[in-house]
Amino acid sequence: MIDKELLDILACPICKSEIHLRDDRLICQKCRKYYPIRDGIPVMLIDEAKDLK
Questions:
Q1: Do residues 15 and 47 lie in contact, with contact meaning Cβ atoms separated by under 8 Å?
Q2: Which domain holds residue 32?
């Protein structure tokens, strides 16, 4: 799905923390947000961030 090298360099655009891949989204544990992955492309826009439930 997402290349490990790409995942290693991606960071949360809000708090700049490390993100983790879980299912079909990228999760920031620090700010409790997640970002979608559409057609294999991470959508790392602040406006696209959703709150974790």
A1: no
A2: 4-51
Rounded to two decimals, the pTM is 0.86
- Between CA 25 and CA 53 the distance in angstroms is 14
Q: Residue 19's CB: how many other CB atoms inside 10 A?
A: 21
pLDDT digit string (tens) for 25-41? 999 999 999 999 999 89
At 23, which CATH number? 2.20.25.10
Which 3 state secondary structure label does DSSP give 44?
A: coil
In which residue are the tokens 């999760």 written? 27
Number of domains in the chain: 1
**β-strand pairing of 50-51 with 33-38:** antiparallel
